[in-house]
Amino acid sequence: MSIITNIIILRISCISIDFLLRLIPIIIDWLNASIAIDRTLALVMSTKYDKSKSRRAVKWTIISILLFSTSSLLHDPINRQLIEDREETRTWCLIQYSSALQIYNSTINIFHFFVPFIINIVTAFIIIFVAARSRATAQRQQTYKQHLKEQFHRHNHLILSSIILVILATPRLIISFISGCMKSVRNSAFYLVGYFISFIPPCITFIVFVLPSKLYKNEFYAATRRFRTFIGRQ
Asked: One short Pfam family name for this protein (predicted)?
């Protein structure tokens, strides 16, 4: 927009900013999916679940997610370039793919979008059914169907939060398939709203995951009390 004219700053921002804005939500989605898997394993394995092994696995999982997500998107910054438009007196940050790379880019977008969502939904249903089966075995005064209904009511936030997050992230997927440049402020509100809606999920993790869950909310309150006690001692 001719506000910044330093070519080095423009080149760095062209390569990095859009890449990071694309990468970070993907990393968050995969971290959420990993938490869902760990939560499910803890329930399914019950007494066999080893917390110390889980903590060690977390470190490798985070590293793997960072490496996998970054490497799958490296084609993005590599193919970015600055184009000087003298007629409109502006500098464009353009990205151009070959047909094969375009197919790969679309495929990887769909993969990063749907797979974490599917993991979240599937693990949520596994938790509900396994918990209902365990309760039905331990508490025979109620039928399995009654326990199942109770567990759906208790854990419905897992399903609802996954659906809400994927709905909010949908504009990000749609925009990734739209090619072209916004040359003026005409209809800019539509694109900007869709663009910023995509970043709502990382900003409302607390609202979506913690507040609807009695367990997580109690843990949050307990952690807050411990923090206040620690600060008071200082």
From this structure: 7tm_1
**Do residues 57 and 37 make contact, with C-beta atoms less than 8 angstroms apart?**
no
Q: Which residues pair with 94 in a beta bridge?
A: 81
CATH topology of domain 7-203: Rhopdopsin 7-helix transmembrane proteins (1.20.1070)
Q: For 21, what's the count of Cα atoms within 13 Å in the CB-facing half-sphere?
A: 16
Enter the DSSP assignment of 81. Answer: E
The C-alpha atoms of residue 135 and residue 60 are separated, in whole angstroms, by: 33
Render pLDDT for 153-212 as a digit per residue (tens, 0 to 9): 887 878 887 888 788 778 778 777 776 666 555 666 766 776 777 777 777 777 766 777
> Any idea which residue has 């370039």 for tokens?
81
In sequence order, which ranges of 46-143 are alpha helices (DSSP H)?
51-72, 75-78, 99-138
Report the Cα 68 to chain-centroid distance in Å: 14
Contacts of 220 (CB under 8 A, 6+ apart): 210
User: Domain spans of the chain?
Assistant: 7-203
